Automatic annotation (TrEMBL), chain A:
GO terms for biological process: plasma membrane acetate transport. It is a multi-pass membrane protein. GO terms for molecular function: acetate transmembrane transporter activity; symporter activity. InterPro entries: Na/Glc_symporter_sf, Na/solute_symporter, Sodium:Solute_Symporter. It comes from Actinacidiphila bryophytorum. Its main location: membrane. GO terms for cellular component: plasma membrane. Coiled coil: none annotated. This is Acetate Na+-dependent symporter subunit involved in volatile signal for biofilm formation. PANTHER family: CATION_ACETATE SYMPORTER ACTP, SODIUM/PROLINE SYMPORTER-RELATED.
Automatic annotation (TrEMBL), chain B:
The chain crosses the membrane at residues 73-95, 107-129. It comes from Actinacidiphila bryophytorum. Coiled coil: none annotated. InterPro entries: DUF485. Keywords: Membrane, Transmembrane, Transmembrane helix. It holds the Pfam family DUF485. This is Membrane protein.
């Protein structure tokens, strides 16, 4: 991506001045609103329930908007429509995977997790298992997933600023990454879950409004004739009808085909293991409202991805794939360029306004997503790692002064953890600034699917699952996923790799999911079979009864 | 939603976990589970005691019914949509010829299959929610009541 940054900057440089002013104004308005929300939410008493779960009294609609806000990252808004603009149908495959994943969440995870846990994934596992090892394992994998996802988003923020305001050097991108990091830490440490949720809601409304507006403009331009739009897109892409069929991006070698199947598997199974998605179910009072929030989220996310398909084909038709590619080789500027063209082209008033609006919406999107992830990972650090390593195991539901003091302690640790995670993410993002970010998102999903999902599903549905099984399932998915990435062509052996100079790639695929997800399930099974002590039937009965009835849910 | 800030009071009622119980008229305890005074259960909060209550409920016909209905819907549905999605991805990557065949106008098999994925996702969401609402929610709520009185662990808001 780095080589094209300069070209993109040059391409946009002529109109950069006008874009910059308006985009900065719009973005400042968004930041002011979110800071006001944070200040308002920060006035409340900081119990851990308030900080990690926002008081648990959000309505399903509000939580559904917030879930959609946590999920629809700039990678979807700019990345997927950009991929469609460049590769046609192969870009669409992503959006299908991202949506179908929600059925796993809806049917197997949302309600049961809401009923069994308090704040994090580890709560669900440790209800049945020995607290300490399981909390450490689940906390570690949650933090790893979150940091990978954070770095991808923040590198994206840097590139976006570079592209939108035409910053040629690295200075603008560096400051964008630092600014985004500082803001997200501020939101999370001062506003907790309540502020983060409202920021997601505002962002979702902005993102959906912007997407609806552009989609309507594309459809109006083609007089509502979808066939005409597809025809023009095929013509504008330079590929003809091949543009509308799969194969342009993933149809080459067998390893690239397998790579896509691996990515598809990771996308569809990973969502249910993402810590910042799981923690959202605790902001509503009951499992039934958790279910209804997911229904809202599926409606919003499905509509959004359908519209990104229109935008992607619209960009190919109106702007042309070659123009998009010359602006950014990954296609990330397809939607801003489409907005500009729909408004009347470069230099026109409406073109400038729409370009700035899209830029500001994309930036707001990134900011909200990173806040959600930072909150979830600081909850994992404070509620799982810190509790397990520093404190004796705490029983749920006890109300005594010591427990209250511990809650305060947890919240304080979480606030500092947010600062620490923010610092780590900023540092890693600055190091990875010139790297391709797409693989980081795919990797975060693959790690979530390999490490978190097997343990979660076994724990909810398998009577014989043991502590050793859960620890093995988590590390047995996490370690292979990370090792396979290090051995993949993303890290070495290719000109665009992290270390292009050396070649130690032994694994042909970019995405480890196809291997590491089955390994996670296998490790959990082997660990259970080899356990010294059998599973406690009473505790499984408690988990199963609670998960399906909601008895004793907080 | 934040009630202090002028939220709609109706919204709270919609999410009231006990709301469904009202429609059924007077609540009748489960016959399978012998009634135990809640105070006594709350005192005997030891893990073993609680575990045995949960084991008892797990064995009860009422709970088996709820679990059977849940698994009976969710497991086949999950197997079906995962298989359908994997079939779609594998076909898209390995059979571009088939997927590129025109159906109507510019719409080809691949495009139709992709839109069908969206459609089945929406359809299954609707079917699951309907099944849960009609076949599972009330029975689960009854069990929750039973357990609340027996273990005394339900927290009062």
């Amino acid at each position: 991506m780095s080589g094209t940054q300069a070209a993109a900057g040059r391409y946009l440089a002529d109109s950069a001045g006008e874009h910059q002013g308006l985009a900065v104004v719009l973005f400042t308005v968004f930041v002011s609103v979110t800071l006001a929300i944070t200040a308002w939410a920060g006035r409340r008493r900081s119990s851990s329930e308030e900080f990690f779960a926002g008081g648990r009294m959000f309505s399903p609609m509000e939580n559904g908007f917030a879930i959609a806000g946590d999920y629809m990252s700039a990678a979807s808004f700019l990345g997927i429509s950009g991929l469609i603009a460049l590769f046609g149908y192969d870009g669409l495959l992503y959006s299908v995977g991202f949506l179908v994943a929600w059925l796993v969440v809806l049917m197997l995870v949302a309600e049961l997790v809401r009923n069994c846990g308090r704040y994090t994934l580890a709560d669900v596992l440790s209800a049945r298992m020995r607290q300490r090892p399981v909390r450490v394992a689940a906390g570690t994998s949650s933090v790893v997933v979150s940091v990978l996802y954070l770095v991808a988003q923040m590198v994206g923020a840097g590139s976006l600023v570079g592209l939108l305001i035409g910053g040629q050097g690295t200075a603008a991108r560096t400051w964008a990454v630092i600014g985004v990091g500082a803001l997200m830490v501020f939101y999370v440490s001062f506003g907790g879950m309540r502020a983060t949720t409202w920021i997601q809601i505002v962002k979702t409304v902005l993102l959906i409004s912007g997407t609806v507006m552009l989609t309507v403009m594309v459809l109006v331009r083609f007089h509502g004739n979808v066939d005409g739009l597809l025809h023009a897109a095929a013509a504008g892409s330079g590929h003809g009808d091949a543009f509308l069929a799969p194969g342009l991006k993933y149809g080459g070698s067998w390893s690239s085909r397998l790579d896509f199947i691996s990515l598809g598997l990771a996308l569809v199974l990973g969502t249910a293991g993402l810590p910042h998605i799981l923690s959202r179910f605790y902001t509503v009072p009951t499992a039934r409202s958790a279910r209804r929030s997911v229904v809202w989220a599926i409606g919003l996310i499905g509509a959004f991805y359908l519209m990104t398909i229109v935008l992607g084909f619209g960009a190919a038709a109106v702007v042309g794939s070659d123009t998009v590619r010359s602006s950014n080789a990954a296609g990330n500027t397809a939607v801003p360029l489409l907005a500009e063209a729909l408004g009347g082209g470069s230099g026109s008033t409406w073109g400038t306004v729409l370009f700035a609006v899209v830029g500001a919406v994309a930036f707001a999107t990134i900011l909200a997503v990173v806040a959600g992830i930072t909150l979830a990972s600081s909850a994992s650090v404070a509620h799982d790692l810190y509790t397990a390593l520093r404190r004796p195991a705490a029983r749920h539901g006890r109300r005594d002064p010591a427990a209250d003091a511990m809650e305060q302690d947890e919240v304080r640790v979480a606030r500092f953890a947010a600062v620490g995670i923010g610092a780590v993410a900023i540092a890693l993002s600055l190091l990875a600034q010139d790297q391709n970010i797409a693989f980081l998102v795919g990797l975060a999903f693959a790690v979530a699917a390999s490490a978190n999902l097997p343990a979660l599903l076994y724990s909810l549905f398998w009577r014989r699952f043991t502590t050793r099984g859960s620890v093995w399932a988590i590390y047995g998915g996490l370690v292979p996923a990370l090792v396979l990435v290090v051995l993949s062509p993303v890290v070495s052996g290719r000109p665009d790799a992290l270390f292009p100079g050396v070649d130690f790639h032994l694994f042909p695929l970019e995405n480890p999911g196809l291997v590491s997800i089955p390994l996670g399930f296998l490790a959990g099974w082997i660990g259970t079979v080899l356990s010294p002590e059998p599973a406690d039937p009473g505790r499984y009965a408690e988990t199963e009864v609670r998960s399906l009835t909601g008895a004793g849910a907080v | 939603m934040d009630k202090d800030d002028g939220g709609d009071p109706l919204a709270l009622r919609v999410d009231d976990p006990w709301r469904d119980a009202g429609g059924a008229g007077l609540w009748v305890p489960e016959q399978e589970v012998p009634a135990v005074p809640p105070a006594g259960a709350a005192q005997a909060g030891a893990a073993g005691e609680r575990g045995s209550v949960f084991l008892e409920v797990q064995d009860s016909a009422a709970f088996q019914e709820v679990r059977g209905r849940y698994r009976g819907f969710v497991f086949p549905a999950a197997a079906a949509f995962v298989a359908w999605y994997l079939l779609y991805v594998v076909l898209a990557t390995t059979a571009p010829g088939l997927m590129g065949r025109q159906v109507a106008g510019e719409v080809n098999v691949a495009m139709a299959a992709g839109l069908a994925q969206f459609a089945t996702t929406f359809l299954l969401t609707w079917a699951y929610v309907r099944h849960a609402r009609l076949r599972r929610d009330r029975a689960a709520l009854d069990l929750r009541w039973t357990l609340a009185t027996r273990t005394g662990q339900e927290r009062v808001r």
